[in-house]
UniProtKB/TrEMBL annotation:
Pfam families recorded: SBP_bac_5
Gene3D superfamilies: Dipeptide-binding Protein, Domain 1 (3.90.76.10), Dipeptide-binding Protein, Domain 3 (3.10.105.10), Periplasmic binding protein-like II (3.40.190.10)
Domain called Solute-binding protein family: residue spans: 99-473
Ranges of biased composition (kind: Acidic residues): 34-52
Origin species: Alkalihalophilus lindianensis
Signal peptide annotation: 1-28
Keyword vocabulary terms for this entry: Signal, Transport
Protein name: ABC transporter substrate-binding protein
Residue segments, region Disordered: 27-52, 536-556
Polar residues bias: start-end ranges: 536-547
């Protein structure tokens, strides 16, 4: 699986780098089996009958933070917004290969600075208004300009991912989008002031989907609770920390879709309670499956297991501006004190590998030559002594309240880490907060050390590095408050470089510097697992952790 992901990323990046990315509405159609005519079933297969009730209940460990996708970074938000909104480019259902979305084709000029997107016609937003080039322009200008009337910055909206992916905001020196020009009702041009190697991948990210302009007028800063897109499902209601209900978009522009009539995202915080609900038929799909439960589900004909491709990092992050974590020796000591192999044995059931870099293996520029910090409590003690804290100290270990793809049981993980640190004389007080509060307060820097992770959403290493460890992502995804000018400069170079080999070399150098500075403890790259009822068909887990449910169907 890892080799396949690497190949797909290389293929996608090669398309971008040679500026030949162009697609048509036929590009994502599945190939017909040899000897079978279109629409003809393969011999010996049976087509399951659709169930009368097409209501899918998807259970997860935590609630969404916001339904304004561009202003948040949590996967629980994008899992829902992926159903409501759509982007100009869509990734294939099981990879980061580029395919058509709201744009059915696009062209890139030889300079790599001008991108023209040809948009689908006849598409309407859920409020009945037309999707067109003006709507695309307004959305991108909203994210780029903090003074835009729909930026809602005074209400706390922060588009940090836009800033990191496109080199900043309007007026910033590094902001790469020079102009956005409406060439016609369904044709739009993006003009860059310098090349951006990940531009097309960025256009497929769920952060950059298109909201109805009328919805901004009607709802203002309450848009986060009143989402209006073009997607297969329409928003119905949101009961905080309980459920979000969506219904079928009867006017969806893709013929025959969606197949479901209703989707309910249900919050059930405990992993075991979710599995009990699945077994009893109360829910249809659950996220955050304990790896220990995979074997027994595999033996149950009424259930099925889904695996995502490894595409994440689970890590322990330091607030590097706070004592004693402003001392690199203390941070390195933590890296030597934590038994990652033991953590995997306890929590992951073999469905993970230890991490030594921020990006997963298989990504462009992954530096396999780096020597992973070994589990060595005695060396950890020596480093603590060199840092002047040989007597130990006490700190708060901020622990996620919800299971995530890279951390199926945060509480047990925190307890294991707590025990490892106790062995070298450090006392960790485990602190847990409600999910939205946890994300908000770690972004504000109220923590000492925190547990979190990151899943790739566009197949490009820049999404990991620039959001987690670039100085410009403070405040934002960089909750470590780590800013190394050399690292920052190299990341900017890599972002704007279009040569495949040069980009790879820059990222390899970045990883050497990060490894030495140790702003985090890279813990694991996991294979996230989900479970579902056997009557769920056409559910394909995406590496990004957010997949559209438009083709999912319940059968008898």
């Amino acid at each position: 699986m890892k080799h396949r992901l690497s190949f797909l990323m290389m293929l996608m990046l090669a398309l971008v780098l040679f500026l030949s990315a162009c697609s048509s509405s036929d590009s994502s159609a599945p190939e017909q089996s040899e000897g079978a005519e279109e629409g003809e079933e393969a011999e010996g297969t049976e087509q399951a009958e659709p169930a009368e009730d097409q209501t899918l209940v998807f259970a997860r460990g935590g609630d969404s933070v916001s339904l304004d996708y561009a202003s948040v970074t949590d996967g629980e938000s994008s899992r829902v917004t992926k159903q409501i909104y759509e982007t100009l480019i869509e990734f294939d259902r099981d990879s980061f290969d580029l395919g058509p979305g709201l744009a059915h084709e696009w062209e890139v000029d030889d300079s790599g600075l001008r991108f023209v997107f040809h948009l689908e016609e006849g598409v309407t937003f859920h409020d009945g208004t037309d999707f067109n080039a003006e709507a695309v322009k307004l959305n991108f200008e909203r994210w780029a300009d903090p003074e835009h009337e729909y930026a809602f910055t005074d209400d706390g909206y922060n588009y940090s991912v836009y800033g990191t992916q496109f080199g900043g905001f309007k007026g910033d020196d590094g902001h790469v989008i020079e102009e956005i020009n409406v060439l016609g009702d369904h044709e739009i041009e993006f003009v860059l002031n310098q090349p951006l190697g990940s531009f097309l991948q960025n256009m497929g990210m769920s952060y950059f989907a298109i909201t109805s302009p009328l919805a901004f007028e009607e709802h203002g800063s309450a848009i986060n609770e009143n989402p209006v897109g073009t997607g297969p499902f329409k928003f119905v209601s949101w009961s905080r920390d309980d459920s979000i209900i969506l219904e079928k978009n009867e006017d969806y522009w893709k013929e025959g879709l969606p197949k479901l009539d209703r989707v309910i995202f249900q919050v059930i915080p405990d992993n075991s309670a979710r599995l009990t609900a699945l077994r009893s038929g109360q829910i249809d799909i659950m996220d955050g499956l304990n790896p220990d439960d995979v074997a027994q589900i595999d033996g149950d004909d009424s259930l099925q297991v889904f695996e995502r491709t490894t595409n994440n990092i689970g890590y322990l992050g330091f607030h590097v501006e706070k004592e004693p974590f402003d001392n690199p020796d203390v941070r390195r000591a933590f890296n030597h004190a934590i038994d990652k192999e033991g953590l995997i044995a306890i929590l992951y059931g073999g469905l993970a590998e230890t991490a030594k870099n921020t990006i997963p293996p298989g990504y462009l520029g992954y530096n396999d030559a780096i020597d992973e910090y070994s589990y060595d409590p005695e060396l950890a003690k020596e480093l603590l002594a060199e840092a002047g804290v040989e007597e130990g100290f006490t700190f708060d270990l901020w622990t996620m309240p919800v299971a995530r793809p890279y951390m199926p049981d945060p509480q047990r993980a925190a307890e294991a880490i707590q025990a490892n640190l106790a062995d070298v004389g450090i006392t960790a007080n485990i602190l847990t907060k409600e999910w939205a509060t946890y994300l908000e307060e770690t972004e504000q820097g109220m923590h000492d050390v925190f547990m979190l992770g990151w899943s790739g959403v566009n197949g490009d290493p820049d999404y990991f590095f620039s959001n987690l460890l670039h100085g410009d992502a403070i405040p934002g995804g960089n909750r470590s408050f780590y800013s190394n000018e050399e690292v920052n400069d190299l990341l900017v170079q890599a972002k704007t470089e279009v040569d495949f080999d040069v980009r790879a070399a820059l990222y390899e150098e970045v990883q050497e510097l990060i490894h030495e500075d140790a702003p985090m403890v890279p813990l694991v790259h996991s294979i996230p697992t989900l479970a579902g009822s056997s009557n769920v068909s056409n559910f394909i887990p995406h590496p990004s952790t957010s997949e559209t449910l438009d083709e999912v169907e319940l059968t008898n």
